[in-house]
Amino acid sequence: MTLPDSIFCSQFKERFRGFLPVVVDLETAGVDPFKNALLEMCIVLIQIDSEGIFAPQATYFEHILPFEGAELDKKSLDFIQVDPYQPLRFAIEEKEALKNLFAPINRALKEHQCQKAVLVGHNAWFDLLFIKEAVKRTGVKSPFHSFTCFDTATLSGLIYGQTVLSKATKAAGIDFNANEAHSAVYDAEKTAELFCTMLNTWRKIHMNYYKSSE
């Protein structure tokens, strides 16, 4: 029986049809991408080795100042425990933050010869909508596919029967500290671990199946 080439290849451009998965997590001042501010953004680049095994590679993060006229929902701010104008955040303007975070993605796209990044997130639609609105406001060119995304909540529901990040990571054998949750860096890095674990598990299942069928 022939192995499905895309699952067992060791290059992103072949594994995901020319797309590069990039893990993203945001913290926002509400749930409305049109009105509420983007306050934290973290991206995690993924690597793939010669055996086709995935692992988190590098983390990039920015604190972001609310855009002019943004609405700040107090309940959301209390939940994520962020004061948008706290000087020690060392927050920067939204446009500068996007440029800083998109730069390593664009370098990775060239390195791996991929045409677009695909946003990987836990409830990825939320992050993608906020990024799309931030891009419209700032005029910064986005490296992300405009609608395709990989949602780890859906994938972990399929594989582990768990859709909440803390429960899905534990089901995957990944440590999760609830006290550190709702930080863009922590959640992005745990989402990246979960995504890589699911990809590697899927690869192993297929490898064992095809070996047993020979």
Key features?
5-stranded mixed β-sheet, alpha/beta, 8 helices, Nucleotidyltransferase, domain 5, 214 residues, globular, 5 strands
Outline of this structure?
This protein has 214 residues and is of the alpha/beta class. It has 8 helices and 5 strands, in the order ααβββααβαβααα.
Q: Into which percentage range does the β-strand content fall?
A: 15-25%
Major β-sheet profile: 5 strands, mixed
Shape, principal axes of CA atoms: globular
Tell me the number of strands. 5
Arrangement of strands in the largest sheet? 3-2-1-4-5
Radius of gyration: 18 Å
Model regions low in confidence, pLDDT < 50 over at least 5 residues: none
SS field, number of helical segments: 8
**What structural class should be given to the helix and strand makeup?**
alpha/beta
GO cellular component, one term: cytosol
Cofactor: Mg(2+)
EC number: 3.1.13.-
Site (Important for substrate binding and specificity): 79, 126, 147
Walk me through the structure.
The chain has one domain (15-213): Ribonuclease H-like superfamily/Ribonuclease H (Nucleotidyltransferase, domain 5, 2-Layer Sandwich). It is an alpha/beta fold and 214 residues long. α6 packs across α8. Strands 3-2-1-4-5 form a 5-stranded mixed β-sheet, sandwiched between helices. It is globular and about 65 Å long. The protein has 8 helices and 5 strands; from the N terminus they run ααβββααβαβααα. The chain is 44% helix and 21% strand.
